[in-house]
Design a protein that fits this description.
The chain is of the alpha/beta class.
Length: 335
């Protein structure tokens, strides 16, 4: 196969960005079909590319000219498209979340295993961020001894009024939940959520900030601080405290400057720009590995792990108690 012929389901914000990546930046793939329930949106994006336009995901998935699918519809619609792709035996890149519940994600992994071939990659793009990859290499080298605990922050300048407490877990924390177990090679055991004094910048109905605490099977503890109205910029941090040293996620390279009595490092104001390079690397890797018939990146089992963990965190947010995270044993298929 010379070029991967890609069909994109869901032509909203990130769908359009992935289409632009494939069309303008990469050479190994082309977008040959697009679909959206809002068909005018699909037409606007697809027609200039000469792509087939569909108003539903099944027609796109079963189109013989589509080799592989990118699913960028809202989370609640992922299950349907993924099951169609599995039935058609076609590789699919699904944006996070894999599905919106642990039960649905379990259904997906079981369907993929029945098919006997890994076809699903999930859009946990932080694994492609240079800084996180460097941390992973350092931890895996063994030079720092055992990791003991980790501290992560997801600080963001302002958040829209449609953001609610549940989304702190299901939307804001999901990337941290994927990256932490991947970095530490560990499994989650229980979850607690702490809700400290509320910022006056938080809109009514949102408790911001919140602190998530995850105990891991090895005894490690990981905390994730989510503060979505921190006012000053996108500030993603990750610090791993080990027996023989401490590793910090680097701040993305940007010129420091001296001005008005300050020595400053500029921070992004938009979370998407913070990870532009990671999104590029993720989609390029998906294209390359799909052309080779492989799945390299985060897989459906990783999607299932985050769903189970998010359900425990949501329960902990409501109960104020420690809630168990019960994840089935990873099947050999996903090792
Ligand atoms: P969006 O709302 O901008 O776009 C979604 C599009 O899907 C809309 O055009 C809508 O008409 C269409 N749609 C709705 N139901 C559909 C269906 N059943 N079949 C096909 N299309 C359908 O949303 P956005 O921000 O582009 O997010 C899409 C997905 O990407 C979500 O799952 C979101 O969580 C994920 N996402 C991931 C990010 C990451 O950092 N990896 C960042 C932003 C979004």
């Amino acid at each position: 196969m010379e070029k991967l012929r890609v069909g994109v389901v869901g032509c909203g914000a990130i769908g359009r960005e992935h289409i632009a990546r494939i069309t303008d930046k990469f050479s190994g793939a082309e977008v040959v079909a697009v679909s959206d329930v809002f068909v005018e949106g699909a037409r606007k994006i697809g027609e200039p590319l000469g792509a087939c336009i569909y108003n539903n995901s099944a027609d796109l998935v079963y189109d013989d000219d589509v080799d592989a699918i990118i699913c960028t519809s809202p989370g609640f619609a992922h299950r349907e498209t993924i099951l169609q792709a599995l039935e058609a035996g076609k590789p699919i890149f699904s944006e996070k979340p894999l599905t919106t519940s642990a039960a649905e994600s379990k259904e997906i992994v079981e369907a993929e295993m029945r098919g006997g071939k890994r076809l699903i990659q999930v859009g946990f793009m932080r694994r492609y961020d240079r800084g996180f990859r460097q941390i992973k290499q350092m931890l895996d080298s063994g030079d720092f001894g055992e990791a003991l605990y980790s501290r992560s922050t997801y600080w963001n300048p302002q958040i829209g009024h449609d953001y609610d407490n549940q989304m702190i877990i299901t939307d804001a924390s999901i990337h941290d939940l994927d990256i932490i177990h991947w970095l530490l090679n560990d499994e989650y055991e229980s979850a607690r959520v702490f809700q400290p004094k509320r910022s006056s910048h938080a809109h009514k109905g949102l408790n911001d900030p919140q602190i998530l605490m995850l105990k891991m099977k090895s005894g490690r503890i990981a905390t994730v601080e989510i503060f979505l109205n921190c006012q000053y910029g996108v500030d993603i941090n990750c610090q791993i405290v080990c027996e023989d040293g401490v590793i910090d996620l680097p701040t993305p390279a940007a010129p420091t400057f001296r001005k008005s009595g300050n020595l400053s490092v500029p921070l992004e104001q938009n979370w998407k720009r913070r990870f532009t390079d990671a999104y590029d690397a993720e989609i390029q890797d998906w294209i390359n590995s799909t052309l080779k018939g492989e799945v390299n990146g985060p897989n459906a089992w990783d999607g299932y792990i985050t769903n189970v963990t998010m359900e425990a965190l949501t329960a902990a947010q409501l109960s104020g108690e420690e809630e168990s995270i019960i994840i089935d044993e990873r099947p050999d298929f996903y090792k």
